[in-house]
Design a protein that fits this description.
Layout: E1 3-4, H1 12-45, H2 52-80, H3 83-102, H4 106-134, H5 140-166, H6 180-192, H7 200-205, H8 209-220, E2 224-225, H9 243-249, H10 251-273, H11 275-282, H12 293-308, H13 311-321, H14 327-350, H15 355-371, H16 373-384, H17 390-442
Parallel strand pairs: 1-2
Helix pairs in contact: 1-2, 1-4, 1-5, 1-6, 1-12, 2-4, 2-17, 3-4, 3-6, 4-5, 4-17, 5-12, 5-13, 5-16, 10-16, 10-17, 11-12, 12-15, 13-15, 14-15, 14-16, 14-17, 15-16, 16-17
Length: about 450
């Protein structure tokens, strides 16, 4: 039986597309988790102590790369197509990781993190484009959300491997060996993308109908056909609007998809990158006061692993609700509950409550953050932008989101030095509530 792309039954071919595209999300959060372990290890080596500004710079460098990469490569993909960039990005990540491994110095690490982030920024634009354009309508946003949920495996897998490696170390100078994790993941990404093709809808939108049909059949089989394009006054290939025209036309959508993503970025990356350090600052690790510095790092990474394990259930809960609850409403609720969870964590710290309450509050924060904001800030841009400008729209939203992440990562160690964990938690609570407010006010549907 023949089917149109939008109404095709879900098959293993769709699942393969999602799996291959999802690796970009996995390596993005995996790199952030890796950096969260490298920073305290490098801090042990630093003489004098690694400054809070330098800690923030190391933590933020890959995110700065993501800002540039998501905008530049997202815009470029609208012009030249997806597949060449989709294959180049993992090679760039791998090469930068190898450079940091072979030349383990602070300047090389910082430059390598920027380059890896630049390529990951392209990944963040391209993977959602591929999934949203190749899924049946019934499964579209569920599968886009599932792609984002793969980021949970990045946190969990990298935290687990780092803990298994670091727990037996006695020398923090071994930190470059952790980069083998990124090298392995990026190599796998490239191999899986050798048999991957151009987006059929991108080809169709640019007047290349024969190539579009051929690549669609390679992806999904010969019994799947392309949906017809809306009628146009002429036969010219689709052209992307200029950036200035795009900004004027879509300013409300940019605020709606970008600012909450920036607020979410503080929680995912700002807190995520410094989670082991925050765990130590809050006193909820297992190591005793007299143990070695590396033992304290290993213990904090173990707690980080347990906290990270709740990320996946958060995504699964969000995916279960994604077709039942308005997306903006789900995002708003997630922000509010994340803020409340951090309030409980603050009270537990100041009141010297039992450790399990603090760890539970941290887990609730991750659960609600990933159920709502972390999932929906990724899904909503694909809903509000048309296919001809989707790369640019998603790229701008990603870039704004990563600006928030960069600010969070850069300032959290400075806030820690200025006011300790209390100041970090108050600022984070305020940002979560701000994300809820912006989502509510600028939602296109206002059905909240």
């Amino acid at each position: 039986m023949n089917y149109e792309l939008n109404n095709a039954p879900f098959s293993w071919r769709h699942l393969r597309i999602v799996a291959v595209a999802s690796l970009g999300q996995l390596i993005g959060t995996g790199l952030a988790t890796l950096v969260s372990v490298i920073i305290p290890l490098y801090q042990i080596l630093a003489h004098p102590e690694l400054s809070s500004v330098m800690q923030g710079l190391i933590g933020a460098m890959d995110l700065i790369g993501i800002i540039f990469g998501s905008y530049i490569l997202g815009n470029l993909s609208d012009r030249i197509g997806y597949i060449s960039l989709f294959r180049i990005c993992p090679l760039v990540i791998c090469a930068a990781a190898v450079a940091a491994l072979l030349f383990p110095s602070l300047p090389v690490l910082i430059l390598s993190l920027f380059i890896m982030g630049f390529a990951i920024g392209g990944e963040y634009s391209l993977d959602s484009d591929y999934v949203s354009e190749l899924m049946p309508d019934k499964w579209k946003f569920m599968m886009v959300g599932s792609t984002k949920a793969a980021s949970a495996f990045g946190n969990i897998v990298v935290a687990l491997v780092c803990f298994l490696i670091v727990k037996d170390w006695t020398d923090s100078a071994l930190w470059p060996r952790l980069l083998w994790i990124i090298i392995a993941i990026s190599g796998l990404m490239f191999l899986l993308r050798i048999r991957f093709w151009e987006s059929p809808l991108w080809l169709q939108a640019h007047g290349r109908d024969k190539e579009a049909v051929a690549d669609l059949h390679k992806f999904l089989g010969d019994n799947i056909s392309l949906p017809p394009l809306p009628p146009k006054p002429d036969k010219a290939p689709a052209k992307s609007v200029s950036t200035s025209d795009f900004l004027k036309k879509n300013w409300r959508n940019i605020i709606f998809t970008g600012i909450p993503w920036a607020c979410e970025g503080l929680g995912v990356y700002g807190i995520g990158v410094f989670l082991p350090i925050l765990v130590m600052a809050l006193g909820i690790e297992h190591a005793a006061a007299g143990e070695s510095a590396i033992r304290h790092v290993a213990s904090s990474v173990e707690i980080t692993l347990w906290i990270s394990c709740i990320i996946l259930p958060g995504f699964l809960l969000g995916l279960a609700l994604i077709n039942k609850v308005n997306g903006a409403r789900l995002q708003t609720i997630g922000f509010l509950l994340s803020g409340v969870s951090l309030l409980i964590l603050l009270f537990a710290y100041q009141g010297h409550w039992m450790k399990w309450i603090s760890i539970g509050a941290f887990m609730c924060f991750e659960l609600f953050l990933n159920m709502g904001p972390h999932l929906m800030t990724y899904v909503l841009p694909t809903k509000v932008y048309p296919v001809e400008d989707r790369g640019l729209g998603v790229g701008i939203a990603t870039a704004i989101g990563k600006i928030g992440a960069v600010l969070g990562v850069f300032f959290i160690p400075i806030l820690l030095k200025a006011g300790g964990s209390v100041l970090v938690l108050w600022v984070s609570i305020g940002v979560m509530f701000l994300g809820a407010l912006i989502t509510f006010l600028f939602s296109p549907s206002r059905k909240i």
